Amino acid sequence: MKRSRKTQKKSKREESQMKGTLARHFQVQLGYSSSIQHQSFSSTSSSSRLQNHLESVSQDATLSAADVDDKDLILTQDFFCTPDYITPVNQNSMSGFDCNRENIPCPKSPEKLNTVKSKKLRQDGFLVNPLDPTSYDYQDTVDLAKDSFSTDEVQLTKTIGYTTQKTHNYVPQSAVALRCRVMPPPCIKNPYQKDASEMDIDRFGNQWAKCAGLFPVITGGDGLSRYYTDFHEIEQIGAGNFSHVFKVLKRIDGCFYAVKHSKRQLHHDAERRKALLEVQALAALGSHENIVGYYSSWFENEQLYIQMELCDHSLSDKKASQFFAEGEVLKALHQIAQALQFIHEKGIAHLDVKPDNIYVKNGVYKLGDFGRATLLNKSLPIEEGDARYMPQEILNEDYDHLDKVDIFSLGATMYELIKGSPLSESGPQFLNLRDGKLPLLPGHSLQFQNLLKVMVDPDPVQRPSAKELVENPIFDKIQKHRKTYMKP
Ligand SMILES: Nc1ncnc2c1ncn2[C@@H]1O[C@H](COP(=O)(O)OP(=O)(O)OP(=O)(O)O)[C@@H](O)[C@H]1O
Ligand SMILES: [Mg+2]
């Protein structure tokens, strides 16, 4: 890389200072990358590539000024651990990674890795697997490589140790190329958002038409994996009929989250729009202590990914079952009733309240899985949830009291927790519950049993609203029972 005359005229003192700071920079980088190596990264991992690169630099005892320019490749992003766009292909190589350790490996800058990869491409004829969602496609990599090496156009900020010499504004060509290729996806109208109709219609109308050909972009059609770029997968923590749920570590903030993604690919626009209703409901609802927190969502590989608050377990997990004395059930009932009051007041019905979809985090109960949420005013499609928890009117396709459907499901859920075994999907027990007939529950207060009974009343009008439920005097007991709620 050519150096400017001005730079060449630097005094010897300045140059030796530069070498000193650069050497410190390398020491930090080398220390950092060697710590990564101790965390059982594979030799092909990006960190090892970085280390090899840096080792070759450090072996050069007489570091000339020209060398300094060559090391422009070390960018400030390396210091600040901003994310890379390529994750080691073999994710298992990170399986021994101890997440509690301080020196969590941070991915390297996209500029640097593109360069390393493009060099490899030229020297070794190395091919990137075009089917691998964690890698660039071949053409993209070549394009980026060209960008990285067109020195006439590239304007780099020289980062030397802790000081940054700004010769020009730093605009990586790879970023420019990427920005040119990736157009913003179209806006999607959120039907749960009350003021959606007041928004500038052009954002939802014309853009759809203009951007119709860009749908592959929001489905991850550019080959980049946001999931593997942003998250380190720890383990699978759940599976429903439609989704897998994983515990993940977000690379940039070091926090754990749950990421849910659809089991199958959503090939058609209509399927994707339907799946989106879940995140649109979560986003429109906003935060509530008793509703699972929602962070973000995106399409990738034609699957919808949802980043959520990580909870400890669901009420259907075995580890939950031992804590269901009446006091604990009352606590769960009160908290989920508050969640229902919150969503009903926003005009939304959940329609799939059941133990599977109630999560626990630090002793707090949270309603999750808004995959069947709909609007109370019946303006969105209605898809009933798990039949075991559905009242008769829903099975008869009477959708006039969708909020009361949730109250029935919550009553049935609480009954199941007390009973300690799953509700039947058919037979006399199933029919009795639809008729509002609950067997006596020995050892439980009459007040509690009566409350459950009215919640599963066959007439939805007789069932209490979520607000009435929350205000029921039975919950005054909760304070007295607080000690018994604590986990042993
Ligand atoms: N945020 C979370 N924290 C912890 N575990 C979770 C979380 N979200 C989901 N799970 C676990 O994953 C399971 C499946 O998730 P979820 O119910 O959302 O999937 P689904 O396919 O939509 O389910 P369904 O079959 O009920 O429609 C849950 O029952 C729960 O055990
Ligand atoms: Mg579920």
From TrEMBL:
One GO cellular component, as annotated: cytoplasm
A Pfam family annotated for this UniProt entry: Pkinase
Entries under Gene3D superfamilies matching the protein: Phosphorylase Kinase, domain 1, Transferase(Phosphotransferase) domain 1
GO molecular function annotation: ATP binding; metal ion binding; non-membrane spanning protein tyrosine kinase activity; protein serine/threonine kinase activity; protein tyrosine kinase activity
Binding residues for ATP: K260
Protein name: Wee1-like protein kinase
Keywords per UniProt: ATP-binding, Kinase, Magnesium, Metal-binding, Nucleotide-binding, Serine/threonine-protein kinase, Transferase, Tyrosine-protein kinase
Residues covered by region (Disordered): 1-21
Family: Belongs to the protein kinase superfamily. Ser/Thr protein kinase family. GCN2 subfamily.
Ranges of residues in domain Protein kinase: 231-475
Residue ranges with Basic residues bias: 1-11
Cited InterPro entries: CC_SR_Kinase, Kinase-like_dom_sf, Prot_kinase_dom, Protein_kinase_ATP_BS, Ser/Thr_kinase_AS
EC number(s) given by UniProt: 2.7.10.2
